[in-house]
């Protein structure tokens, strides 16, 4: 009898322990759950999205200016200033290249235009063909260089203005035919306010032969020559 009472009391004590422990476990789990949801990215129960800090290297302009911090605004300003500097430098270099190309190739005052006009004249002159040989097309080139394969040889030329304000252009280059080689010399001038260049002389010198004048303003003093303008140059008949 005493034994049965002891067993019953033990069961009641065990049950009491279980009843007291269970609410404590539940409370602990509830507290942990609450701590898990109460994070810094939660505001009023609404999740807050996170983003990387904006720097000069990773800024792609997607984040609105108002959302940037002071440091991020400074980074974006620095990046945009640098990009603007690159664009401005590119525009200046492009403009410089365009100006150089115009002055050296397309302008009527360029060395290239004077050279091409003179070459066309000597190739079409029958006396030049006879002096140099006409079996092949006459070749014109600049100063000889140490590199025999060089295609862009420098052409000797000079531009100056005299005391009267007249511009002068002087050039010489080599011309070679199928049998001989010679040197072409030219001198053109343009008075103040004039738009067209005039030949003072255009001549070919071949060793052992008299000079051939294609243009010579002093060849026949006192004689009036008819002339016409073509491609910015005044040609005399």
Explain the overall architecture.
This protein is α+β, with helices and mostly antiparallel strands and 237 residues long. It has helices at residues 2-37, 70-106, 111-124, 126-132, and strands at 42-43, 46-47, 139-141, 156-161, 167-176, 181-190, 197-206, 212-216, 227-230, 233-236. Strands 3, 4, 5, 6, 7, 8, 9 and 10 form an eight-stranded mixed β-sheet that branches. It is elongated.
Give a concise summary.
The protein has about 240 residues and is of the alpha+beta class. It has helices spanning about 1-35, 70-105, 110-125, 125-130; strands spanning about 40-45, 45, 140, 155-160, 165-175, 180-190, 195-205, 210-215, 225-230, 235.
Backbone CA Rg: 47 Å
Number of strand elements: 10
Characterize the quaternary organization of these chains. Answer: single chain
Overall mean pLDDT? 77
Report the structural category: alpha+beta
Instruction: Report low-confidence residues grouped into runs of 5 or more.
Output: 221-228, 230-235
Largest sheet: 8 strands, mixed
CA(first)-CA(last) distance: 154 Å
**Share of helix, binned:** 25-40%
Number of helices: 4
Quick one: overall form?
A: elongated
Proportion in β-strands: 15-25%
Order of helices and strands: HEEHHHEEEEEEEE
């Amino acid at each position: 009898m005493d034994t049965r009472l002891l067993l019953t009391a033990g069961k009641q004590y065990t049950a009491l322990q279980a009843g007291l422990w269970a609410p404590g476990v539940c409370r602990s789990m509830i507290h942990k759950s609450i701590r898990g949801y109460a994070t810094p990215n939660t505001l009023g129960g609404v999740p807050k999205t996170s983003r990387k800090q904006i720097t000069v290297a990773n800024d792609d302009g997607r984040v609105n200016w108002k959302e940037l911090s002071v440091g991020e605004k400074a980074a974006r300003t620095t990046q945009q200033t640098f990009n603007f500097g690159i664009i401005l430098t590119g525009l200046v270099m492009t403009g410089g290249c365009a100006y150089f190309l115009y002055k050296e190739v397309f302008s009527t005052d360029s060395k290239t235009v004077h050279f091409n006009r003179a070459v066309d004249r000597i190739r079409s002159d029958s006396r030049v063909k006879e002096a140099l040989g006409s079996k092949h097309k006459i070749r014109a080139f600049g100063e000889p260089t140490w590199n025999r394969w060089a295609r862009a040889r420098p052409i000797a030329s000079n531009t100056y203005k005299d005391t009267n304000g007249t511009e002068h252009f002087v050039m010489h280059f080599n011309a070679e035919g199928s049998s001989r080689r010679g040197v072409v010399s030219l001198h053109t001038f343009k008075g103040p306010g004039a738009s067209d260049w005039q030949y003072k002389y255009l001549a070919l010198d071949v060793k052992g032969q008299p000079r051939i004048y294609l243009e010579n303003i002093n060849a026949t003093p006192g004689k009036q020559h008819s002339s016409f303008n073509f491609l910015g140059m005044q040609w005399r008949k």
